[in-house]
Write a structure and sequence with these properties.
It is a single chain. β1, α8 and β2 form a beta-alpha-beta unit. By secondary structure, this protein is mainly alpha-helical. The protein has helices at 19-32, 40-44, 50-61, 72-85, 89-93, 101-117, 133-140, 164-167, 187-198, 201-204, 225-238, and strands at 159-160, 180-181, 243-244. The protein contains eleven helices and three strands; from the N terminus they run αααααααβαβαααβ. The longest helix is centred in the middle third of the chain and has 17 residues, at 101-117. It is elongated and about 50 Å long. 21% of the residues are buried. It is 44% helix and 2% strand. The protein has a domain at 19-61: Arc Repressor Mutant, subunit A (Orthogonal Bundle). The protein binds a DNA duplex (21 and 21 nucleotides) through residues 3-4, 6, 14-17, 36-38, 50-52, 54-56, 58-60, 87-90, 101-103, 105-107, 109-111, 126-127, 129-134. Residues 169-178 have a biased composition (Acidic residues). This is Myb-related protein Myb4. It comes from Carex littledalei. Residues 153-165 have a biased composition (Low complexity).
DNA sequence: AAAGTCAGCAACCGCTCCACT
DNA sequence: GAGTGGAGCGGTTGCTGACTT
């Protein structure tokens, strides 16, 4: 018997979204919010399944999506978090503002995985001269969404670095010298950090353990600050001393 | 210039999780 | 506690376009 499909697929459109469909979805959500995804396409007048609408909104149309190439520190953070969390793309995405799980997953499979496999010495590079559809769109529509942070500007992030080896190649990154902040991991640092942690719903339901496995470690008040310190210090060190503190 | 190859990425599919009854 | 439905997640597919031959 099995479960009924998520939506009635008869007569529903599949495949790439047209600009008109995008506009309908955007204006509907701006007006009413997404509410019930299943009911949304009908109410908005879209011949799409709710799941498709949700995916399109989450991965592409959301105003806070950051377009553009991954910066060096974002790449490092993805690699580090992947070591800790495994293929939990949504958990990884929660640590990267404006990046989606789908995007991170794509980057991982197309680039970072190879970069890691190449044994650190011969670092794989994406095809340098190839300009993708996405990049072309960014070139032409760079300012189309005023809410979208620009790739060159990472000043909205507060990053930390304790690793000089990372900063050796920071000329490849969009980080400027003044964006790199050396951490003062005193009590006020942790106090601030955990006040951010407790106030962030995106990370509050994740389970992480201090050994790097994705189990048995839940953020929240049932764990001591010392436990969290140990975990975050480990992540921090694995990241080569680069952390996006705004997401903690 | 044309054909073949391959990388990038948007989107789909199937499954699990979770809240609600 | 069991059943149901919606949301979310991760794996995978397939199209597009840049690059190579």
């Amino acid at each position: 018997m099995g479960r009924a499909p998520c939506c009635d697929k008869v007569g529903l459109k599949k495949g790439p979204w047209s600009p008109e469909e995008d506009q309908i979805l955007i204006s509907y959500i701006e007006k009413h919010g997404h509410g019930n995804w299943r009911a949304l396409p009908k109410q908005a007048g879209l011949l799409r399944c709710g799941k498709s609408c949700r995916l399109r909104w989450i991965n592409y149309l959301r105003p806070d999506i950051k377009r553009g190439n991954f910066t060096k520190d974002e790449e490092e953070l993805v690699i580090s978090l992947h070591q800790s969390l495994g293929n939990r793309w949504s958990a990884i995405a929660a640590q990267l503002p404006g990046r989606t799980d789908n995007e991170i997953k794509n980057i991982w499979h197309t680039y970072l995985k190879k970069k890691l496999a190449s044994d650190n010495s011969t670092v794989a590079q994406p095809r340098s001269t190839k300009k993708t559809k996405k990049q072309k769109a960014e070139t032409t529509n760079f300012d189309s969404n005023p809410n979208t942070p620009q790739p060159e500007s990472i000043s909205s992030l507060s990053s930390l670095s304790t690793d000089q080896s990372w900063s050796d190649d920071k000329e490849e990154s969009f980080l400027s010298e003044e964006d790199v902040i050396l951490p003062q991991m005193d009590e006020s640092f942790w106090t601030e950090m955990f006040s951010m942690d407790n106030g962030t719903s995106s990370s509050s339901d994740q389970t992480l353990d201090s050994t790097g496995d994705a189990s048995g470690y839940t953020f929240g008040d049932q764990y001591s600050i010392e436990d969290d310190k140990e975990f975050w210090l480990k992540v921090f060190c694995e990241a080569g001393g680069v952390m996006d503190m705004s997401q903690l």
